[in-house]
Design goal:
The chain is α+β, with helices and mostly antiparallel strands. The protein has four domains: 228 residues, Ferritin; 127 residues, no CATH class; 83 residues, 2-Layer Sandwich (Dna Ligase, domain 1); 224 residues, D-amino Acid Aminotransferase, Chain A, domain 1 (2-Layer Sandwich), CATH 3.30.470. It is built from 23 helices and 19 strands. The strands form four sheets. It has a nine-stranded antiparallel beta sheet with strand order 15-14-11-12-13-16-19-18-17, with helices on both faces. A four-stranded parallel beta sheet has the order 5-4-3-6, with no helix packed on it. The protein has a four-stranded antiparallel beta sheet with strand order 7-10-8-9, with helices on both faces. It is elongated, with a radius of gyration of 32 Å.
Length: 730
């Protein structure tokens, strides 16, 4: 020692401080620090060389050694948002002590990770390193407070097994910026939410002392997060904070880990987090452990099969369909899944959806018609569960094989050859197997068309419907007089190179669709019966939701008693039984997955009676009906609504040049009204875009809820002079 100065009075070297905390095997080691009373308790004169070998685990007392049996879960027991849902165990002092045990282990882990950062990055700016050390002093105080209060509540530190998730995700951090992203802007930012959440629970339970501890720690965490904000901006000047944060956050950590059961916007703002970051984080969702399924929208699956396309992506003038509608997969994906899109929806759009009660999955932005190399770079480091494609085609399967290394579920997501189920010739075969009346005919040449037309004439039909074997949404559908087809089949079937489907043209009253799932085991689950809407050309235009039969029939007339006498329950039962029968036949043929059946109600030309044609087409893929049903779950019970597909040609009837202006005007006319009960938000009335008006170029989808808005949507499709058409596919 120097003359007159005790060693204990000198500032403590950061390296010695960090080494003791990282390798110490007692709680006393973890709580040891510099002598009190110093304005500057630390010095960084001898930072030493960077730690070359990171220890597999930090030093720990035996009672707090990481228990591998504890797994990787980092959830706190009893994460509930109000006292009514709070488990009874939190009313017991020991139950509250066990929650504090979780927080105490996190404080200990934070200390060890911060110590590791000091040893890994001796060349980092001194003020950055001293900022970490000052944070560590407060973390030591927090740990001591937790231990004391736990003991008072009857819990000893070590009574529960502890897991090593945070340590394992951060032991290989490669830079100070990565440290700031993971520790300050992820784990400590999430603690803002957890501290507030549990402060309220403890206060509601009458435990003011423990609630006060959570409030103090929350306020300290604001400063800790602020340290990360300041340094991330210095490390990455010229970038937005959100962009820098994402660039330096290493998988498996994602921004989802930076949020808790509540969202403390005020605390984040106090920490210096800007509004853009807060808005992005609020809507960001990703898996916190489960390998996410990747949802892939390939709406041109039938077209690609017809063209023998090798790529699963649409190209040319049709590419806008993929671009505009791929985000719709968010409604059928799980919240912790990933949805592949060419461009991510805007934050404003996602925030509007979220405030309306929808959960937002993670979006993977890959651009239009991306190369495998590009997708490979976007997915780098991820672990995925399964591929969930809109249509299970050979092209999509080949694309998946190139990315197979990212997927954990084997073997292939579907068997090769699923393409054969997507053609309308498969529907024709099933209908004949089931002995259907007036089944469709697969016509390969003019003679086939003539024969089918004559058969339809003999059954009393004046017109036939001709449509391509491979096609969707009513594309290629034509209405042809029977007499013309019988006399001049070459005019009715000008493209002799490709087969077509010929069936009677029915005087449609309305379209119906039954949705079902064929499981790999052979079980068939019938999901719902819906009412698709088509325009005059037979093109799919949306779905009637809520009370779907309150809208007019295909001729613009109100449904009468005759219709309702038959639709419930007889036709509904028949549709469900039909789906079960079709699903079993599909499974026997080797199919499993999502499917649907397009049906229609028509007026028989001979008897004049309403009849049900239970099978018009079988869609061996996902359909817009699945999306519509998922959206319908967010409607207030009993509200009529229409989920509408607004094509760009509809804008010609308005003064708007783009969907953004159109949507803004309609939102003024039909403002969105919601209600919240039991933690769930439902839509009562108004207009809600369901893909982003800012990025949509060809199709905008939107919900029109309530009688007035739904009637407006109906008129957009049909106008005042609607006429019946044959069913389009969905």
């Amino acid at each position: 020692m120097r003359a007159g100065i005790m060693l204990s009075d000198l500032p403590m070297e950061l390296r010695a401080y960090a080494e003791r905390i990282l390798s110490g095997t007692t709680i006393e080691d973890k709580l040891a620090g510099p002598a009190s009373g110093h304005d500057n308790p630390f010095s960084d004169d001898h930072p030493g060389a960077a730690l070359e070998t990171v220890p597999e685990l930090p030093g720990r007392p035996l009672a707090l050694a990481f228990d591998r049996r504890a797994g990787t879960s980092s959830s706190i027991p009893g994460q509930f948002t109000d006292k009514a849902k709070s488990p009874a165990k939190l009313s017991d002092p020991r139950g509250r002590g066990l929650v504090l045990h979780y927080f105490a282990n996190h404080e200990l882990l934070a200390l060890e990770i911060m110590a590791l950062a000091l040893l890994r990055f001796p060349d980092a700016p001194k003020s950055f390193r001293l900022g970490i050390a000052r944070t560590m002093l407060e973390e030591q105080e927090h740990l001591g407070i937790y231990i004391r209060r736990m003991n008072e509540l009857g819990v000893q530190f070590g009574d529960l097994p502890v897991n090593s998730y945070f340590w394992r995700t951060m032991r290989e951090i490669a830079s100070p910026a990565e440290y700031a992203a993971a520790m300050s802007l992820t784990f400590e930012q999430a603690n803002l939410d957890f501290a507030l959440h549990y402060e309220k629970i403890f206060r509601d339970l009458g435990d003011a002392e423990t609630a006060g501890i959570m409030r103090r720690i929350h306020d300290d965490e604001v400063r800790h997060v602020q340290h990360g904000v300041i340094w991330m901006k210095r490390f990455e000047s010229g970038k937005t904070l959100w962009s820098s944060y994402q660039d330096h956050l290493r998988y498996p950590l994602t921004p989802s880990r930076a949020k808790g059961p509540v969202f403390d916007q005020h605390g984040r703002a106090r920490a210096g987090i800007d509004e853009e970051f807060i808005r992005n984080l609020r809507v960001f969702t990703s898996s916190k452990g489960r390998p996410a399924d990747l949802w892939f929208f390939n709406p041109g699956c039938e077209r690609q099969i017809a063209m023998s396309a090798a790529s699963p992506f649409l190209t040319g003038g049709a590419a806008f369909i993929e671009h505009d509608l791929a985000p719709l997969m968010l409604y059928i994906a799980a919240p912790d899944d990933m949805v592949m899109v060419s461009r991510k929806p805007s934050i404003g759009f996602l925030a509007r959806l979220q405030s309306s009660g929808f959960t937002i999955p993670e979006f993977v932005e890959c651009g239009t018609s991306p190369s495998i190399k590009h997708i490979d770079s976007v997915l780098a480091g991820r672990k995925l569960g399964a591929l969930r494609a809109w249509g299970e085609t050979t092209a999509a399967l080949s694309w998946w094989h190139s990315l197979k290394k990212y997927f954990t579920r084997m073997p292939d997501p579907w068997p090769p050859g699923h393409d054969r189920f997507l053609g309308k010739d498969f529907t024709a075969r099933i209908l004949r197997d089931l002995g259907a009346k007036n089944p469709p005919s697969v016509c390969h040449n003019e003679a086939d068309v003539k024969s089918a037309a004559i058969a339809c004439a003999a059954a009393g039909f004046s017109h036939i419907a001709i449509k391509p074997v491979l096609g969707a949404s009513g594309l290629g559908l034509r209405r042809v007089p029977v007499a013309r087809a019988a006399v001049a089949p070459d005019a009715a079937h000008p493209d002799t190179a490709h087969p077509v489907i010929v069936e009677p043209w029915l005087e449609k009253v309305c379209d119906l669709s039954v949705l079902f799932e064929v499981e790999a085991s052979g079980r068939v689950r019938v999901l719902d019966v819906t009412r698709p809407l088509v325009d005059r050309a037979g093109r799919y235009s949306g779905h009637a939701l809520g009370r779907p039969f309150t809208f007019p029939d295909a001729k613009g007339q109100e449904f009468g008693p005759e219709f309702f006498a038959k639709i419930y329950p007889a036709w509904m039962d028949e549709l469900r039984e039909t789906a079960l029968a079709v699903g079993k036949k599909m499974h026997a043929a080797g199919f499993s997955g999502a499917a649907g059946i397009d049906s229609l109600v028509f007026r028989d030309p001979a008897s004049g009676e309403l009849e049900l044609r239970p099978i018009v087409e079988i869609n061996a893929r996902f359909s817009m009906g699945r999306v519509a049903v998922a959206i319908e779950k967010h409607l207030s019970r009993g509200q009529p609504a229409i989920w509408l597909h607004i094509h760009r040609n509809m804008l010609r009837k308005s003064t708007h040049q783009n969907f953004k202006g159109f949507a803004a005007k309609i939102a003024e006319r039909f403002p969105l009204r919601t209600s919240t009960a039991a933690g769930a938000t439902h839509i009562k009335s108004g207009f809600l875009p369901t893909n982003d008006p800012e990025t949509a170029s060809g199709i905008l989808t939107a919900l029109f809820a309530g009688q007035d808005a739904a009637r407006f949507a109906w008129d957009l499709i049909h106008g005042s002079g609607s006429t019946g058409t044959s069913s389009g596919t969905t």
